[in-house]
Amino acid sequence: MAGQQRRRAEETPADHGQTPRRGALARYNAGLTERGPEGAVRRFLLSPAGTFLTNTPAFVLPGRINLQGKHRVLDIQAGRGAIVRLLAARVPFDRPPVAFDASLPALRLARRDLQGEPQGTIALIGGRPTYLPFADERFDLVIAAHVFRRLADHGLVQCLQEIERVLRPNGVLVAWDFAPTSSHALNRLHAWLLRGDALPPHLRGFGPLSHFASEAGFVRVERARLRPFLFPPIPHTAMLAQKWNGVEPFERDAVDAAEELTRRVAGVDEGTRIH
């Protein structure tokens, strides 16, 4: 099947006629390489120190989800790869986690950051989040931090379908992003704070995100109780979605020992299990 074939990892797929998206990526890349203070801030926020502020839950994620060395990890729109570098420093992975991003300047920064670290700490791959260049059922955990607001509804469904495709049975997606509030005034303020985004953000609460995840094929979607988020001062929503494990409930003895992965993140009483 075509979906099972390995796609070229080092090339950026075509944008299928989505000219505004190509323009948004060009603006993002220009902002990231800008020499002035705004460019410096953008680069800082993608660094490990910046990740501590914007993606703080990543620092507690390994313990919360019982992440193990046998698990294969993919971080979508990983920027400079700070999240997977953090995970690799805490978990002795059998195979390097993958930092995946559409921005070549971001990947160049990530490659520079890796200088002096052991070879093979993480893998850097370029491509679009709506077209993942990986074989089916390759990863146990996919992370999507501050990705979904950059996608319109159709693109979000495409992205979620691709994530579901590359996850193994029982694999999970952990995602978080900014969320809207019930206050129009606050939403306008938050839109102003996010004015540096290449496109106007699509802020969604847990309800719409869970709907799109179910539409993409995920069988279980839960709120992920991930806190805190230190910066910026905008509400977040976090989601955990799990792929069907391919077995009936009475066949759970066929599922191995990583059973705490989703229960710990979602904070639910009955755990689901991954291989």
Overall description:
- With 275 residues, the protein is of the alpha/beta class.
- It has ten helices and seven strands.
- Strands 3-2-1-4-5-7-6 form a seven-stranded mixed β-sheet, with helices on both faces.
pLDDT averaged over residues: 83
Distance between the termini: 23 Å
- The low-pLDDT segments are 1-20, 249-260, 268-275
Give the CATH class. Alpha Beta
N to C succession of SSEs: HHHHEHEHEEHEHHEEH
Radius of gyration of CA atoms, rounded to a whole number: 18 Å
CATH superfamily label? Vaccinia Virus protein VP39
* Main beta-sheet strand count, sense and barrel state: 7 strands, mixed
Q: What is the share of helical residues?
A: 25-40%
Total number of strands: 7
Would you tell me which CATH topology applies? Rossmann fold
Sheet with the most strands: spatial strand order: 3-2-1-4-5-7-6
Number of DSSP helical runs: 10
Residue share in β-strands: 15-25%
Number of domains: 1
Overall body shape: globular
CATH architecture: 3-Layer(aba) Sandwich
Structural class: alpha/beta
Topology overview:
Blueprint: H1 19-33, H2 37-45, H3 48-54, H4 61-65, E1 73-76, H5 82-90, E2 98-101, H6 104-113, E3 123-126, E4 139-145, H7 153-166, E5 167-178, H8 184-193, H9 206-215, E6 220-223, E7 236-242, H10 261-266
Parallel strand pairs: 1-2, 1-4, 2-3, 4-5
Antiparallel strand pairs: 5-7, 6-7
Helix pairs in contact: 1-2
